[in-house]
Design a protein that fits this description.
This protein has helices at 18-26, 31-47, 50-62. The chain is an all-alpha fold. The chain has a domain at 18-62.
């Protein structure tokens, strides 16, 4: 039970590819810390829609103005 007021944690088991282990070793970081950072970055990227919104805006800019026929 977490009585310290900190956010509750969930413990899970993960199979880590050798490539991830090598990256952690290259950066001289413990594998658990490295994976936690990857999870945090992945969540932030998922919640950040600026790149998706930017791509949608670029696609819309390619469309012809409304009312003009599309030539094929």
């Amino acid at each position: 039970m977490n009585t310290s007021g900190e956010m509750p944690l969930m413990q899970i088991y993960v199979t880590v590819p050798d490539e991830v282990l090598r990256e952690a070793n290259t950066r001289n970081v413990e594998i658990v810390e490295f994976v936690e950072k990857l999870i945090t970055k992945g969540l932030a990227a998922t919640l950040d829609r600026t790149s998706v919104d930017s791509a949608i805006d670029r696609i819309r800019a390619l469309r012809p103005p409304t009312g003009l026929p599309i030539r094929r």
